[in-house]
Amino acid sequence: MYGRYTQDLGTFAKDEAARLRLQEGDTPQPRHPSELLEYTQGRCGLCRVCALQCQRFLISKVGEDWVFLILLGLVMALVSWAMDFAIATCLQAQKWMYGGLDTNVLLQYMAWVTYPTVLITFSAGFTQILAPQAVGSGIPEMKTILRGVVLKEYLTLKTFVAKVIGLTCALGSGMPLGKEGPFVHIASMCAALLSRFLSLFGGFYENEARNIEMLAAACAVGVGCCFAAPIGGVLFSIEVTSTFFAVRNYWRGFFAATFSAFIFRVLAVWNKDEETITALFKTRFRLDFPFDLQELPAFAVIGIASGFGGALFVYLNRKIVQFMRRQKAINRFLMKKRLLFPALVTLIISTLTFPPGFGQFMAGQLTQKDTLVTLFDNQTWAKQGINDEFEYLGILEAWLHPRSNVFVTLVVFILMKFWMSALATTIPVPCGAFMPVFVIGAAFGRLVGESMAAWFPDGIHTDSNIYRIVPGGYAVVGAAALSGAVTHTVSTAVIVFELTGQISHILPVMIAVILANAVAQSLQPSLYDSIIRIKKLPYLPELGWGHHEKYNVRVEDIMVRDIHYVTLNCKYRDLQQVLHSTKMKNLPLVESAESMILLGSIERAQVGALLNTQLSPQRRLLALRQKVMPEDGHRLSDSSIRFQISTETSSGTPARAALRKPLKPALKRVPSSPADSPPAGSTDHTGIALKSLFCANAATEPTEVRACVRRKGGPLLALVGRLYPLACPMAPPQILEWEEQQLDQLVDFSSAKIDPAPFQLVEHTSLHKTHTIFSLLGLDHAFVTSIGRLVGMVSLKELRKAIEGSLTGKGVKVRPPLASFRDSTASTSEADTTALHQLWDRHQHHHMPREAGPGGDEDDDTPK
Amino acid sequence: MYGRYTQDLGTFAKDEAARLRLQEGDTPQPRHPSELLEYTQGRCGLCRVCALQCQRFLISKVGEDWVFLILLGLVMALVSWAMDFAIATCLQAQKWMYGGLDTNVLLQYMAWVTYPTVLITFSAGFTQILAPQAVGSGIPEMKTILRGVVLKEYLTLKTFVAKVIGLTCALGSGMPLGKEGPFVHIASMCAALLSRFLSLFGGFYENEARNIEMLAAACAVGVGCCFAAPIGGVLFSIEVTSTFFAVRNYWRGFFAATFSAFIFRVLAVWNKDEETITALFKTRFRLDFPFDLQELPAFAVIGIASGFGGALFVYLNRKIVQFMRRQKAINRFLMKKRLLFPALVTLIISTLTFPPGFGQFMAGQLTQKDTLVTLFDNQTWAKQGINDEFEYLGILEAWLHPRSNVFVTLVVFILMKFWMSALATTIPVPCGAFMPVFVIGAAFGRLVGESMAAWFPDGIHTDSNIYRIVPGGYAVVGAAALSGAVTHTVSTAVIVFELTGQISHILPVMIAVILANAVAQSLQPSLYDSIIRIKKLPYLPELGWGHHEKYNVRVEDIMVRDIHYVTLNCKYRDLQQVLHSTKMKNLPLVESAESMILLGSIERAQVGALLNTQLSPQRRLLALRQKVMPEDGHRLSDSSIRFQISTETSSGTPARAALRKPLKPALKRVPSSPADSPPAGSTDHTGIALKSLFCANAATEPTEVRACVRRKGGPLLALVGRLYPLACPMAPPQILEWEEQQLDQLVDFSSAKIDPAPFQLVEHTSLHKTHTIFSLLGLDHAFVTSIGRLVGMVSLKELRKAIEGSLTGKGVKVRPPLASFRDSTASTSEADTTALHQLWDRHQHHHMPREAGPGGDEDDDTPK
Question: Where in the cell is it found (chains A, B) (predicted)?
Answer without folding.
Answer: Membrane
